[in-house]
Amino acid sequence: MALPRIIVVGGGLAGLAAVIKIAEAGGAVDLFSIVPVKRSHSVCAQGGINAAKNLKGEGDTTWQHFDDTIYGGDFLANQTPVKAMCEAAPAIIDLLDRMGVPFNRTPEGMLDFRRFGGTLYHRTAFAGATTGQQLLYALDEQVRRYEAEGKVRKFEGWEFLSAVIDGKGQARGITALNLRTMELRSFPAEALILATGGIGAIFGKSTNSVVCTGSAQSAVFQQGAWYANGEFIQVHPTSIPGEDKLRLMSESARGEGGRVWVPRAPGDKRPAKQIPEAERFYFLEEWYPKYGNLVPRDVATRAIHRVVYEEGLGVDGQPMVYLDLTHIDRATLDRKLGGILEIYEKFVGVDPHVEPMKIFPGMHYTMGGLWVDFNQMTNIPGIFAAGECEYQYHGANRLGANSLMSCIYGGFQAGPNALTYAKDLPAADGDGGQAAEVARQAEINNRLMQNQGTENPFKIWRELGNIMTEHAAVIRYNKGLKQADAKIVELLERYKNVNLADRSQWANTSFAFARQLKNMLELARTVVQGALLRDESRGAHYKPEFPERNDEKFLKTTKAIFTGDVAGPRFEFEDVDIQYIKPRRRSYDATK
Amino acid sequence: MADKKLQLEIKRQASPDDPAEWERFELDWRPGMNLVSAMMDIAANPVTADGRPTTPVTYDSNCLEEICGSCAMRINGKARMACSALIDNLEQPIRVEPLSKFPLVRDLQVDRSVLFENLKAVKAWVPVDGTYDLGEGPRVYPQQQEANYPLSNCISCTCCMEVCPQFNESTGFVGAATIAQVKLFNNHPTGKVFKEERLRALAGDGGIQECGFAQNCVEACPKQLPLTEAISDLGREVAVQKVKDFLRK
């Protein structure tokens, strides 16, 4: 019998990790990516990757890592997969090291580790401040090796449009669009793995890359895949506001001793360096003496919001606070944080060695994503998911430097599991639904291309981003969420009137964007409506009207199920696996 | 300030078979704009300066933080990344064209896959035995890490190839980026198992001897890779390898 063919969609860390495992096990892989995989969004990860290697004599354990992750996620993550990830993490670091990732070293030649948010241990391995780039390259190189050996076929510049699902409800392949020739076709496979990353574009400006639209996961959501915990959106406390995007300023800046502060006097006009120590308000250190600047991201983000909007202490009266590294010597900064300091200097034009950086929270990550079982399979047989596009590892708030681990670990699980599934899959009846799905997609494409409306898709997108950022980010009120949902319904209606300024059949980026936009709008409703239903505060989801966590009602996974109705998705709630650690109150003002 | 404008001239070409033409745009200026945000504004309102409707500009971009390597183009004649090209630092009208040494796809988008093919040819990877748990990696001292890390920062933007006078069809030169990767993997305790093969791959036509030491590459590199240092180190090693191979015959 021929080897099963697996399709992996997405060439970031999770996708490449899955490809490597499948190729190593002898499976055949087709790898699809909008961009050349080496340009995937994983390159943007900066600070590091967590594993309890305990190389600093602190007595760190994988159980501590597990406990920090569950506690940091406010007990919403299913504990079985998180425990397994934390246990696998040290060996994954060793593997990455063997693959040649240039991790920072101690004088004795061992891996160096730094501290990150939400833990008291030095648990984060790092390669300067470009860890994601270095990890992605290591996996990219291994995949290139398999490609050279003929075990992997790459389809770069193809965009996933939909899954091909047969009459029995099983996945049989995908349809995809060639972004250069605009050719639409189907690719058969026995199983597919979505590793399509984040959804930042739904919020307009975020720290995410341009391709992080959530379009692929939304497409399969609309084909019946459940979408879980969509309301949990991480707003990173420290980003650099920009005209085109919000650039990440890594948590590692604080891990290496960076301090967040504002002048104590509102509207203090003096340059930062002239404000004496006693007149600076190090609010994170004062409010959270145990964790200080390294409280988890949701806590830090809300603290910055409070200082700026409730206490009126933003720098120069603007929504900005200082992130200060100027007390650390230049050589240390360059060795451990060089990459991110260069970004700040290039894009802001100010040297952060000398002047404190001005930063503000920015949309960064989705904890929610496609619902998967403990084998990384969605509810549609044969569709697996790994990485940021699935919901499994971070609960209500992700700890810094856990995402790179969850991507690689998730990919390492999804790959072999997809292969096992595919080996047992009976042959499809007929063409398995390929022709019908291509026809359905061709119909959508033709309608869009010929539409004679008046709406510009990029303008609709900007409106979506504004409404999501206003109502569905750091602080949520039910009234605002309802407004946001109504606005999305309006935008969906206006989308029907979309007019492409470009109708050509060659490298038509407006067309590809307009297709993504429809999927963004549909997915945005799972975020907004999920948030509306969850009348409590947990992790990154914060409602001043319901400031406490309510385990009795909401220690549940939210599952959104697409209906196609104007009312939006249908929601179900599922119990969380809490068999190892009993939920307890989460608070970072003292030791947990 | 509200009506401050910025002037942009973009070289447009609908496909490789269509003629190229320059289009002029006049956009509202905002503080902190980069070239990518200007092109996003054009997409939201695709009209030229003389009021003619046009198409949004096709160009590669992704991270917008100068780490993915996508958005390389020629800006005021210089090969660089569009995301880090801040409008206020550029002379106007800003003239934007595609990289000239790679097959054009459309507008500012070109096909740079030659670099990835080159990386295959020089086996730019560490041949690990497998992904199962084989224990810790080799010891690496900080001094070695600090020498290798800068080489590992290459974002495959191909600016070094664009500006190289020797990178053209007649020489078939691989370009500086690939040579730097050979040095990186030859330095690695496990990666060096392919050292001789990699040096031989750089020895033939289009290999390292095509370099004319114009040193444009190191000037253009947005990540400050020590490219000329890598080329001179490897030039020596390739020569030594050639002699060894000759004597072995």
Name some characteristics of this structure.
heterodimer; A: 592 residues; alpha+beta; 5-stranded parallel beta sheet; 17% strand; B: 249 residues; 5-stranded mixed beta sheet
What does this structure look like?
The complex is a heterodimer of chains A (592) and B (249). Chain A is α+β, with helices and mostly antiparallel strands. Chain A has helices at 13-24, 62-72, 79-98, 131-148, 215-222, 252-255, 283-287, 297-310, 330-348, 403-423, 434-450, 457-471, 478-495, 509-533, 551-554, and strands at residues 5-9, 28-33, 49-50, 113-115, 122-125, 152-156, 158-165, 171-178, 184-188, 191-194, 227-228, 233-241, 246-248, 259-263, 280-281, 321-324, 357-366, 369-370, 383-385, 556-561, 570-575. In chain A, β1 (5-9), α1 (13-24) and β2 form a beta-alpha-beta unit. The mean pLDDT of chain A is 96. Chain B is 31% helix and 13% strand. Chain B has eight helices and seven strands; from the N terminus they run ββαβββββααααααα. The model of chain B has no long low-confidence stretch (mean pLDDT 96). Classes of the chains: A alpha+beta (592), B alpha+beta (249).
Q: Helices and strands in order, then pairings?
A:
The complex is a heterodimer of chains A (592) and B (249).
Chain A (H helix, E strand, L loop, with lengths): L4 E5 L3 H12 L3 E6 L15 E2 L11 H11 L6 H20 L14 E3 L6 E4 L5 H18 L3 E5 L1 E8 L5 E8 L5 E5 L2 E4 L20 H8 L4 E2 L4 E9 L4 E3 L3 H4 L3 E5 L16 E2 L1 H5 L9 H14 L10 E4 L5 H19 L8 E10 L2 E2 L12 E3 L17 H21 L10 H17 L6 H15 L6 H18 L13 H25 L17 H4 L1 E6 L8 E6 L17
Helix pairs in contact in A: 1-4, 1-10, 2-3, 3-10, 5-14, 12-13, 12-14, 13-14
Chain B lengths: L4 E8 L8 E8 L6 H10 L27 E4 L2 E4 L12 E4 L6 E3 L2 E2 L2 H9 L20 H7 L10 H4 L13 H12 L7 H7 L14 H5 L6 H22 L1
Parallel strand pairs in B: 1-5
Antiparallel strand pairs in B: 1-2, 3-4, 3-5, 6-7
Helix pairs in contact in B: 5-8
Short description:
The complex is a heterodimer of chains A (592) and B (249). Chain A has 592 residues and is an alpha+beta fold.
